[in-house]
Design a protein that fits this description.
By secondary structure, this protein is of the alpha/beta class. The protein folds into two domains: 198 residues, D-Maltodextrin-Binding Protein, domain 2 (3-Layer(aba) Sandwich), CATH 3.40.190.10; 138 residues, 3-Layer(aba) Sandwich (D-Maltodextrin-Binding Protein, domain 2), CATH 3.40.190.10. The chain contains 15 helices and ten strands.
Length: 353
């Protein structure tokens, strides 16, 4: 009983601290707006802000920080909140807004190069990810950020995507055969990969895929650690489920802007901002991963990693040849993998990416 009371006190204290922090941030932001307005002439830009968890969720605070930072680059962002990513994409295309944040899989509609970051197995660890994002934030990479009228002005990690399953006996790719897995309509490669693993793909959206898992409609779903608590995935894991402790892909949020509507220099400064905040994002991501009870994690048996690597590589090559993935990005990702581990067989393979 005393333990429960202590926990309740901690929760109440954390909530009070969070409210206080938001109040301080709001006050600082208002001061920043006023100061910046006096110093420079600000350009107003409407941003369609995708917040899957709604206002007050983890994405909201990040967007408020970005809003404040943008003042230094001559832009006053007017945030319009959305909980449906598909609508955000449509609004951006229609000109309702000139800046939007969308998941990497949706960003592929605007930039195939950066949209290939979500290719399965291409970024194995956060060490690889940091090298990738630092590289893409350099001025030399700027020419790849713009395709048509749109430009990628920022990439933020949301964490590795893990497989959540209601069957703990699954320890490798071959064990997934016969299971039903939710796949996002915006990721055709995932549907192909799921079918290739012998599973049945079940069409889903970002807003209902986790609910389907919790209700037992599907046996397997993919998601970053942060959704474990927020979407109550422990309900779907109980009583005999688990999480495969090997990232399938790296999830990210990409900021897409209509280039002609942004002041000169904004895009590069924005990209550097997100690269510079990598460790801050990782602090939250690692905390979310460590917060998941150890009992749920399913270690990949020694020797089974190769099976998953071979499977994901076949998918990458197939979708490169189909024109879904950008070959230049795949080559960059392969070079980074080989830079960190030159002993990989793919580093000397004749059909290297």
């Amino acid at each position: 009983m005393s333990f429960d009371r202590t926990n309740k006190k901690r929760v109440i204290t954390m909530r009070i601290m969070l409210k206080a922090k938001k109040a301080v941030v709001a006050m600082v932001a208002s001061v920043a707006f006023a100061s910046a307005a006096q110093a420079i002439e600000l350009k107003s830009v409407t941003m369609c802000a995708f917040m899957m968890m709604g206002e007050g969720g983890p994405e909201h605070q990040m967007l408020l920080d970005y809003q404040a930072a943008a003042l230094n680059w001559g832009v006053k962002l007017e945030l319009k909140s959305y909980m449906n990513e598909k609508i955000v994409t449509e609004e951006l295309k229609a000109g309702v807004c000139d800046l939007a944040n969308v998941t990497g899989m949706q960003a592929r509609n605007f930039n195939k190069f950066t949209g290939t970051l979500g290719s399965p197995g291409s970024i194995p660890t956060y060490e690889h990810l940091k090298l990738v994002l630092d590289t893409l934030a350099t001025p030399k990479a700027a020419k790849y950020m713009k395709q048509g009228e749109f430009e990628i002005v920022g990439i933020q990690s949301i964490g590795a995507i893990y497989l959540f399953t209601n069957d703990r006996t699954i320890q490798s790719v071959s064990d997934l055969a016969g299971k039903k897995m939710g796949v996002l309509d915006s990721m055709p490669e995932m549907r192909q990969m799921v079918a290739d693993m012998g599973m049945t793909p079940v069409s889903s959206t970002v807003t209902n895929i986790f609910q389907k898992f919790n209700n037992g409609v599907i046996d397997v779903t993919g998601g970053p650690a942060i959704v474990y608590d927020i979407m109550e995935l422990y309900k779907g894991l109980e009583p005999n489920g688990g999480i495969l402790a090997a990232p399938l892909v790296q999830g990210d949020m990409q900021f897409v802007a209509r280039a002609s509507k942004m002041p000169e220099g904004f895009a590069q400064k924005s990209r550097e901002y997100f690269a510079g905040n990598f460790e801050s994002s990782m602090t939250l991501i690692r905390a979310a991963e460590e917060n998941i009870p150890k009992k749920w994690w399913i270690p990949i048996p020694e020797g089974k990693e190769g099976e998953l690597n071979a499977q994901t590589r076949r998918i990458r090559l197939a979708f490169r040849d189909m024109g879904v993935y950008d070959p230049k990005m795949l080559t960059l990702l392969r070079k980074i993998r080989c830079k960190l581990d030159a002993t990989l067989s793919e580093c000397t393979s004749k059909d290297a990416e």
